[in-house]
Design goal:
By secondary structure, the protein is mostly helical. The protein has seven helices and no strands. It starts with a helix and ends with a helix.
């Protein structure tokens, strides 16, 4: 699923003239960062910002290393005529962080009560 999200974001950023690999990796790290914060709050109910920087930096480095030109070309061929492209709109992918935050708040609320 992460490859498909990468593909869709890559196409969107490329159409807008932004650096597609860097922008996509930053967006994916934003999604992972939200998930880390949610998990951190659910487990310990507090977070230290210095503990969150290392996993995000590692994830951005991982994305840059994994999604090279050859991998991106493979994803382009794999998902170019995919049915999911018609079913999943771009705004749905952009809203993933919002969905994550709402889910995290709900989980945190139910854990406290």
């Amino acid at each position: 699923m992460i490859d498909y999200i990468f593909y869709r974001l890559y196409i969107m950023y490329k159409k807008h003239g932004d650096p597609p690999i860097l922008s996509t990796c930053i967006f994916l790290s934003y999604i992972v960062g939200i998930a880390i914060v949610i998990l951190f709050f659910c487990i310990q109910k507090w977070a230290d910002i210095h503990n969150l920087i290392a996993p995000l930096f590692i994830f951005v480095t991982f994305c840059v290393m994994v999604y090279r030109k050859k991998k991106i070309e493979g994803l382009m061929k794999k998902y170019q005529g995919c049915v999911r492209n018609k079913l999943i709109a771009n705004w749905m992918i952009w809203c993933i962080p919002i969905y994550e935050m709402i889910l995290g708040v709900l989980i945190y609320h139910f854990l406290i009560n």
